[in-house]
């Protein structure tokens, strides 16, 4: 074994009669371990949280939507759909029809006024609805064939709770056309015209879905059948096309290419543009990470400096004896740099093990819960990324070695006479 490394190991991990340097080293190792674990867990939580919410948003809705200007209804066209499906990077495209409604449940038995909520009824194809319900359906009630006057609906769990309804029950839907809404806002429409323009429909709740996105999604969107909505409200018309892409990394380029190919009056917008406020919020969460990492790193640096300074004081006589026996000052510095390396390696190994253990434990038992209404997820998400462990470990070791030069230089400048009489 290298003599310098051997002495460094004995200085760091062996006690001396009448003193406890090993305790100081243990405290330093624990400090570095806690700092390393905190860094890794911070990165794991931030990345896991952002990834979980992004995946929910992206999986709930389409990657790109194609609409016409002013969001007008337009005729469903096989030519347009072929143009979309034939574009580079497109995985699938399907039409949809949206219509705004006010929904009301049946009056309660105690005579209280039934809840009333604004919603968007979105009609999608049978294939798309099957894929969506397979992923998010939490409650379904088999019902006999419904009458021609009733629409089959799938409500979000949050909306169902607000309306106090469940699968198999009926709700009332009242919808207004755009011209009627403009007339109300302008004050040019009387009550008779208003009532005659209402689309009053009865809906049967066939099931309840739960995406975990409570505000603006589960409390707002009702899923229906596209063909049924077209027959009842706008024959042959749609609101736009939902598009899935093959590679999300190319999403912006695909959207621009598609918009240029379809041209006016069509336009495209991506899921990141549609929910820009939510993605900016996620970006803000990520931007806080560097501040936390710098803070914890500074604590680790001061921890190793103070530990090595105490070790220099504790080992003053030994240092003087080694210098008196002919050990060069440069090798004295290497001894304390070796101590720093050994302490940082032990701390990093312990911290990485602690972070991995806590991450696996939380993933298995979900002890830390979150309010789903605010964070869109029920539990703290942890993304175990080997690159995070490697980056944090290398960074901590490099920082401790860099700042360990100060106490190592102090040890090398000790005079043998002074050190031996201390």
Radius of gyration: 33 Å
Which ranges are low-confidence, i.e. pLDDT below 50, for 5 or more consecutive residues?
none
As a percent range, the share of helical residues equals 55-70%
Q: Mean pLDDT, rounded to whole units?
A: 83
Count the beta strands.
Answer: 12
Number of helices: 18
The main sheet comes to: 10 strands, mixed
- End-to-end Cα distance: 30 Å
Q: By helix and strand content, what is the structural category?
A: alpha+beta
Which term fits the overall shape?
elongated
- Report the order of strands and helices: HHEEHEEHEEHEHHEHEHEEHEHHHHHHHH
- Beta strand %: 15-25%
Observed structural traits:
alpha+beta; single chain; 10-stranded mixed sheet; 422 residues; two-stranded antiparallel ribbon
Task: Walk me through this protein's architecture.
By secondary structure, this protein is of the alpha+beta class. Helix content is about 55%, strand content about 20%. It has 18 helices and 12 strands. It has helices at about 5-15, 20-60, 80-85, 125-135, 155-165, 180-185, 190-195, 215-220, 225-230, 250-260, 270-275, 275-315, 315-325, 330-365, 370-375, 385-405, 405-410, 415-420, and strands at about 65-70, 75, 90-105, 115-125, 135-140, 150-155, 170-175, 200-210, 220-225, 235-240, 240-245, 265-270. Strands 1, 3, 4, 5, 6, 7, 8, 9, 11 and 12 form a 10-stranded mixed β-sheet that branches. Strands 2-10 form a two-stranded antiparallel sheet. Helix 14 (about 330-365) runs antiparallel to helix 16. The chain is elongated and about 105 Å long. About 30% of the residues are buried. The mean pLDDT is about 85.
